[in-house]
Amino acid sequence: MAVALPSLTALLAVLMLAALVGVTQLRLEESARSAARSLARGDSVASAVSAAHQIAGSGVAVTITEAGGYVRAEVSVRISGPLSGLVNWPLTAVAVAKAEQGPLEGPAP
């Protein structure tokens, strides 16, 4: 029992971290898609960034670029919390959409 309980606790902590990483990645992907769709419809850059922050949270970094009639939204964040040192890389999601209108309005953050 003295060996099994700490091992079980460590395994549970790693599984919880894996779940956190998975859910965070899904939220990043959805927020990048939302921002790209918003930009493709012709919404402002500020509106697209706001949409990304609503889904993924305010701690994410959002990068918007435009080239060749396509808009690209990249959303990234570093995991924080217990055992976050095991995931020492940023989680990133990218979405690209064809712009329906002309160039973007407003400065890119």
Average pLDDT, to the nearest integer? 87
Question: What is the overall number of helices?
Answer: 2
Work out the helicity level: 40-55%
- Spell out the helices and strands N to C: HHEEE
Give the overall shape.
rod-shaped
Protein name: Pilus assembly protein TadE
InterPro entries: Rv3655c/TadE
Q: Topology, please?
A:
Layout: H1 4-41, H2 45-56, E1 61-67, E2 70-77, E3 91-98
Antiparallel strand pairs: 1-2, 2-3
Q: What are the salient characteristics of this protein?
A:
single chain, 109 residues, three-stranded antiparallel β-sheet, 2 helices, rod-shaped
Descriptive account of the structure:
InterPro entries: Rv3655c/TadE. This is Pilus assembly protein TadE. The chain has 109 residues and is of the alpha+beta class. Helix content is 46%, strand content 21%. It has two helices and three strands; from the N terminus they run H-H-E-E-E. It has helices at residues 4-41, 45-56; strands at 61-67, 70-77, 91-98. Strands 1-2-3 form a three-stranded antiparallel β-sheet, covered by helices on one side. A hairpin with a 2-residue loop joins strand 1 and strand 2 (70-77). The model has no long low-confidence stretch (mean pLDDT 87).
